[in-house]
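Teaching assistant here, posting this on the class forum so everyone can see the example we discussed in section. The complex has two components, and the goal was to see what a joint structure prediction looks like when all of them are supplied at once.
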Amino acid sequence: TQLLEQSPQFLSIQEGENLTVYCNSSSVFSSLQWYRQEPGEGPVLLVTVVTGGEVKKLKRLTFQFGDARKDSSLHITAAQTGDTGLYLCAGDSNSGYALNFGKGTSLLVTP
Amino acid sequence: KAGVTQTPRYLIKTRGQQVTLSCSPISGHRSVSWYQQTPGQGLQFLFEYFSETQRNKGNFPGRFSGRQFSNSRSEMNVSTLELGDSALYLCASSPLGHNNEKLFFGSGTQLSVL
C-alpha cells in the first residue's frame, strides 16, 4: 500500500494568515490530487499535479509537486473563513482504478 | 447536469443487520467507486465498477459487496453489520475511471451501527 502522510493533522488560524500543508510519501506517484471536503459533503477536487516540480495556482492556493513525485504541498495566502475544511491529498494506486488518500489536514479559519 | 446522488443520506442500524446503499452517477459516467471514511482511518477504497464489472477491490472483508447496473447506477451492501462499520460511505463517479481523471463525489451516506 502506498501511504500518504499529511501534516499537520489540525490547523487553526485567523483570517489573513498564510499557511502550508504537506503531503508526503516514500512512494512515487504518477500524479497527485488535492481535494477539499466541507462538513456533510463529499470531497471536491481542487487540482491534479502530474509533472515533478510542477507548480499550479488556483487563486490564493498554490500547489507544488515534488521533483521526485513523492510529495506535494498546498500553500494558502491570506486565508479566508471560506477556506475552512478538510484538505485531502490522493495518489493513484498501483492496482489501478483507485486512489490512496491521506488522512487529511483539518483547517479552521476564524474571523 | 445533476451531480452524484447517494441515498439514503442517513441510516441507523443494529449489529447483525444488513444494509444497502445506492449511488446514481453523473449522466454519462461509467465508472463508479466506493470509499469508506472514518475519523481514524480516513478515506479507504472499497471497490470500483465499470460497465457492470468490478475492476478493483480494496482490503475489506467479504461482508462488503457491490454491484453496478446497466444504467451505471451502483449499490453496495454490507451484511452482518459490526459496530466498526459505522462510517460515511462515499460514492464517486468519473467517465472512465482512468488515473488522473477527476472524481466527482456524492455527499455520502452516514451509517451508524448501534
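For the discussion questions: Chain B touches chain A through 27 residues (CB under 8 Å). DSSP finds no helices and eleven strands in chain B. Think about how each of these relates to the inputs above.
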